[in-house]
Design a protein that fits this description.
This protein has 207 residues and is an alpha/beta fold. It has 2 domains: 129 residues, 3-Layer(aba) Sandwich (Rossmann fold), CATH 3.40.50; 64 residues, Orthogonal Bundle (Arc Repressor Mutant, subunit A). It has 10 helices and 6 strands; from the N terminus they run E-H-E-H-E-H-E-H-E-H-E-H-H-H-H-H. The protein has a 6-stranded parallel β-sheet with strand order 2-1-3-4-5-6, sandwiched between helices. Strand 1, helix 1 and strand 2 form a beta-alpha-beta unit. Helix 7 packs across helix 9 and helix 8 crosses helix 9. The longest helix has 15 residues. The model has no long low-confidence stretch (mean pLDDT 87).
Length: 207
Amino acid sequence: MTTTTGLIRVLLVDDHPTIRSGLKTILSADDGLDVVGEAGSALAGSAALDKVKPDIVLLDLGLPDVRGVGAVRTLLEAGAPRVLVLSGAGSAELVRECLQAGAQGFLLKTAPEAALCGAIHRIVSGERVVDDSLIGALFEAPPAGLTPRELEVLRAVSDGCTNRQVASRLGVSEDTIKTHLSRAMEKLGASDRTHAIAILLRRGLLD
């Protein structure tokens, strides 16, 4: 839930002041976001939660006190409502560990500025977000040869998005989304999108 102003309150937790400054500049350019606090460690971030009351914590994993997935657990146990990991490096194993620990998203620091801001909005709206470059590694063996993009489209559809909404989210045309869906259904042997999603649910590839 955001504040009465409608802005999403963001707490930055990263041990590099220069990076925090850059992130603050990026996020402040989005009219829907408000950076309400900064911290240089997991414990400092935890201590700031009651004071700044963020809607989401943007969390680096290379902190001086608690590193890796432990930082995610520390912030969530302290009461962080949502955590988006922003890491300098990532692997399928690390992404899985962070998501299993309760993080709602995982992005690399190389992600475009628009992707970072968009991820925050999507997570606060109830979605889970994983960096595009890591989706393929996250699903080590895509069923029936599905591409990472086809999986992403099906995940969005499973969230209740229309073709138009998925197209807007991914920055492509509706025809492109229809093509991805058509190819995915053909690969899965599905009769329609609902059948395709059911197949992925059975295989544990959708939440």
